[in-house]
UniProtKB/TrEMBL annotation:
One of its GO terms (molecular function) is DNA binding. Signal peptide: none annotated. Belongs to the AfsR/DnrI/RedD regulatory family. InterPro entries: AfsR-DnrI-RedD_regulator (IPR051677), BTAD (IPR005158), OmpR/PhoB-type_DNA-bd (IPR001867), P-loop_NTPase (IPR027417), Sig_transdc_resp-reg_C-effctor (IPR016032), TPR-like_helical_dom_sf (IPR011990), TPR_rpt (IPR019734), WH-like_DNA-bd_sf (IPR036388). Residues 620-629 have a biased composition (Pro residues). SMART domains: BTAD, TPR, Trans_reg_C. Residues 1-88 form the OmpR/PhoB-type domain. One of its GO terms (biological process) is phosphorelay signal transduction system. This is DNA-binding SARP family transcriptional activator. Keywords: DNA-binding, TPR repeat, Transcription, Transcription regulation. The keyword Transferase does not apply. TPR repeats lie at residues 827-860. Residues 901-917 have a biased composition (Basic and acidic residues). It comes from Saccharothrix australiensis.
Length: 925
């Protein structure tokens, strides 16, 4: 019963313990079947100034309650991430039974509504939550009392509709004295008095209510009460009987639109498209704009803002219904119930409404035919829910909002789709300004900028934060930002389900299958900012055809966005919610999914690297998990494109593998990305991946892997100018290679030391290491690597002015590279020959060599070396007084250096351009 908190089982009442323990249970009952965060439980039981011991005491109470409820059927108290969940059939809770009966009554005929509301009110016994103290209990007690009062008002309305009047006078006299300014109660009392033959008393009561409203509130009665007073004054016969017994209702023009949203901003493009739809109503078909988008993205606000701006275009009325497709009300509204509501709003007397649903829909279409009516169908779940509500007249306009795309409306009913995305940064700021004011926004500029970034343009998130900030201006926005940064999605939770982003998003999952909900949850914890069909198939372990259907279902539900190139992405807040749902999956399901997807990315990256650089030392990863199939790549160009598209995801995959303790995956991902990182100039990413690989190598038994990790981490350090670190790791790599008799690793480490000493400007020492590498490669019969060392010796000899030696070594390297079709080495050697030609005065020959090198580098996608060669190409141009060509190539090199974060190189080239402009001010590129 609704009153004192009590639990009954098998005819006996359970002992729920002391008052605070009962308050804990009450706090869970108010949100049954929803997770209640621990912090919210503490606040509800102890208030905002909870003592330090509140948390351990709460855990004690929860433990006792779990024991108490253990014997109650279908009731379970469960620990969830961040909070607790009380699972129970809602029909077993009087409060939810009460609400369900009230909802049914709103859809019922008057006599049935009276029965249902009486049944609902009979559940009440005494004061709600009696015996419980505290601010929360007090507020809930008041809110529940308001719900009870609303039901009592609804019961009176139902009894009046059923023809009663005199029977209600005594009850309404008392209620009118209790609520003297409530115009609904006043109207009920007036009608009851009039039907009881007391017209004079009814008119006198109206005057008393009017005088009191003017005196206390400074306002006259509203239009509804004034109209009733006019009818009582005129002794209107229609007031004497229930509407069911009259011949007809008054002709009415429905005005059902809810109020326009006060803080609506932006959406200019979408509003223009809706205007275009309105202009098209002269065509022979009904114009429908199906506004789809994720929960909380502002679909209803957009529709209402547009509708209120165009009210003059719909003089015959506006019909509105919330179809409850995604809401806490339970099942979506049946279309027959919505049609019935529309018929009632259009003035059809109950006796004239046919029992057959098809006939009802036909009557509805007849009533709006040739009329200029706006029909707004909010929160639709399916096409079948909408179709019976579509008018047949081209004079009407229909707005449909839904989280689903409702493709059937587009195909069968010529609907105009309007997908709604998040707000831009400018629109987000405008929304906050509308609530907080320009002054506060300006005073807290940095916090505002971060707040907008954290909310990602999600209107519901921004509105919630704006409301909290406006409610207490003393709290700086920086504190709100810190809370959002620390707690993420939990900071956007609320006791009001319609204002809680996690709850609003949860409603989108109701119509998904279990398989689709699992895919959604796993996508929340998958590595990377987006995904693809093959990666999702690996993640879920589903066949590609089934995976495609799951992705389509999530896209249809506006939980996932399809982007160019076959990629799928979630908004950050939707992804954060998906991650919370992943914690409801069994641990082994999450673990196996992450193993599969990391293996998919690793083995595809490994295949891509083999296509880019087939002459690298072999380093094969472990066999992938069962059912994992790497993405097929046809050639080096396809490999480069895949690595480019997947780069952020591959970096995230390495981090995920480290979290899982999959050390071999961490190491092999660094290896598979090394060529790509070098060619694209991703020096900092190379450093980060090899730092992770170096840590992972300590857990591997493969000593070669450890040596390579030190060598390639040292190489990455040298490229970033961190020479001290580079020397230490390269020396360690060389020592390990010697210790374990690895001549290949020794040669490769000498080669890495060559580059490191050259970058420090010690060409002589670099040349020594290059010669060591060359000698080792020759003994190993590795012609391509021998060519690498030959070119390195030639390059360094040229830098030292030994041009004959340099030319001989580079020509020998070029012949080997061409014989073994190693394009990257050929390009590098042509670049070296260009340098030799330029330094020996043959500038035209230098240009030829550099242009050949550039052509090969561009074909390989090696933008790192493209920048270097462009840098050098400008020098023979300048030497030949071709100032324009020199400026052009140096500007291109400058842009690449800046993109790659090579600031010292960029500064050097910029100085050359400045010097060139100074010496040749009139030369144009």
């Amino acid at each position: 019963m609704l009153g004192e908190l009590a639990v009954h089982t098998d005819g006996r009442r359970l002992d729920l313990g002391p008052a605070r323990q009962r308050c804990v249970l009450a706090a869970l009952v108010m949100d049954v079947n929803h997770v209640v965060p621990v912090e919210r439980l503490i606040e509800r039981v102890w208030g905002v100034d909870a003592p330090a011991r509140a948390r351990p005491t709460l855990l004690t109470y929860l433990s006792r309650l779990r024991q108490t409820l253990a014997g109650v059927d279908a009731v379970e108290l469960i620990r969830r991430s961040g909070g607790y969940l009380l699972t129970v059939e809602e029909s077993a809770v009087d409060l939810y039974r009460f609400r369900a009966l009230c909802d049914r009554a709103r859809e019922a005929e008057s006599a049935q509504a009276v029965r249902l509301l009486n049944e609902a009110l009979d559940l009440w016994r005494g004061e709600p939550l009696s015996g419980l103290a505290g601010d929360w209990a007090l507020a809930e007690r008041d809110r529940l009392a308001q719900e009870r009062l609303a039901a009592r008002h609804d019961l009176v309305d139902a009894r009046l509709r059923d023809g009663q009047g005199e029977e209600l006078v005594v009850e309404l006299a008392a209620r009118s004295a209790e609520h003297p300014l409530d115009e609904r109660v006043a109207a009920q009392y007036l009608l009851a008095l009039y039907r009881g033959g007391r017209q004079a008393d009814a008119l006198a009561h109206y005057q008393r209510v009017r005088e009191r409203l003017v005196e206390e509130l400074g306002t006259d009665p509203g239009p509804a009460l004034q109209e009733l007073h006019r009818q009582v004054l005129a002794a209107a016969p229609a007031l004497l009987a229930a509407p069911a017994r009259t011949a007809a209702k008054r002709a009415v023009v429905p005005r059902q639109l809810p109020a326009a949203p006060a803080s609506f901003v932006g959406r200019r493009e979408q509003l223009d498209r809706l205007d275009a739809a309105l202009r098209a109503t002269s065509t022979s078909t009904v114009v429908i704009s199906a506004i789809a988008g994720a929960g909380g993205v502002g679909k209803t606000w957009l529709a209402l803002a547009w509708a209120h701006h165009h009210l003059d275009r719909f003089p015959d009325g506006q019909l509105f219904v919330d179809l409850h497709g995604f809401s806490p009300a339970g099942e979506p509204m049946a279309p027959e119930a919505a049609v019935h509501r529309f018929l009632d709003a259009l003035g059809v007397e109950p006796g004239r409404i046919p029992p057959d649903p098809d006939a009802q829909a036909a009557l509805y279409r007849s009533l709006v035919a040739d009329k200029r009516v706006l029909v707004m169908l909010d929160n639709a779940a399916t096409v079948e829910q909408v179709v019976p509500l579509l008018p047949g007249s081209p004079s009407c306009t229909v707005l449909v909002t839904s989280r689903n795309r409702l493709a059937g409306l587009l195909v069968r009913h010529a609907a105009r789709p309007l997908h709604l995305d998040v707000l831009s940064d400018a629109e987000s700021r405008a929304l906050l300004v509308a609530s907080l004011g320009e002054t506060r926004m300006a005073d807290e500029g940095p916090a505002v900028a971060e707040l907008i970034g954290l909310c990602g343009g999600f209107p519901l998130a921004l509105s919630m934060i704006a409301a909290h900030a406006a409610a207490d201006p003393r709290v700086p926005l920086a504190d709100t930002v810190a809370e959002l940064r620390e707690f993420g999605l939990d900071a956007l939770d609320s006791a009001d389900p319609t204002a809680s982003l996690p709850v609003v998003l949860s409603w989108s999952l109701r119509r998904l299958t279990e398989q689709q909900r699992t895919a959604f949850a796993l996508l929340g914890v998958a590595p990377g900012p987006d995904t693809t069909l093959p990666a999702t198939a690996a993640l879920t372990g589903l066949p590609p055809t089934v995976t495609r259907k799951a992705l389509s279902a999530l896209e249809e539900a506006s939980l996932l966005e399809r982007r160019p190139g076959g990629r799928y992405a979630m908004h950050d807040l939707v992804r954060a919610y998906a991650a919370t749902t992943a914690h409801t999956l069994p641990e082994h399901v999450r673990h196996e999914a992450l193993v599969r997807v990391t293996d998919f990315h690793l083995h595809t990256a490994h295949a891509a690297d083999r296509l880019l650089n087939p002459h690298r030392p072999p380093a094969r990863p472990d066999t992938p998990a069962p059912g994992v199939h790497p993405h097929p790549l046809s050639d080096a160009a396809a490999a480069l494109a895949w690595l480019e598209a997947q780069h952020a995801t591959l970096l995230a995959t390495q981090r995920t593998a480290a979290t899982l303790g999959r050390h071999h995956v961490v190491w092999h991902l660094a290896w598979a990305l090394d060529t790509f990182h070098f060619r694209r100039g991703h020096r900092r990413d190379a450093l980060a991946t090899w730092r992770a690989a170096l840590a992972a190598a300590e857990h591997l038994s493969d000593l070669t892997a450890r040596s390579r990790a030190h060598r390639l981490f040292g190489n990455a350090c040298a490229r970033l100018g961190r020479y001290g670190e580079a020397a230490g790791h390269l020396d360690r790599a060389l020592a390990l290679a010697r210790q374990h008799h690895g001549p290949i690793e020794q040669a490769l480490t000498h080669y890495a030391l060559t580059a490191a000493w050259e970058r420090q400007g010690d060409d002589r020492r670099a040349l020594e290491h290059a010669r060591h590498a060359l000698d080792l490669y020759r003994t190993l019969d590795l012609p391509v690597w021998e060519a690498d060392a030959l070119n390195a010796v030639g390059w360094l000899a040229a830098r030292l002015g030994e041009f004959d030696t340099a030319r001989d070594h580079c020509l020998a390297a070029l012949a080997l590279f061409r014989r073994h079709r190693y394009t990257d080495g050929e390009a590098t050697t042509l670049d070296s020959l260009g340098f030799i030609a330029h330094r020996t005065g043959d500038h035209q020959q230098a240009l030829d060599h550099y242009h050949q090198a550039l052509t090969l580098y561009r074909a390989l996608g090696n933008t790192y070396h493209v920048a270097n060669t462009l840098d050098r190409l400008g020098q023979p141009h300048a030497a030949l007084a071709r100032t324009g060509q020199a400026q052009a190539v140096w500007r291109e090199a400058l842009a690449l250096y800046r993109d790659q974060g090579r600031d010292d190189d960029a500064d050097r080239v910029q100085k050359r351009l400045d010097d060139l402009a100074h010496t040749s001010p009139n030369e144009s590129p």
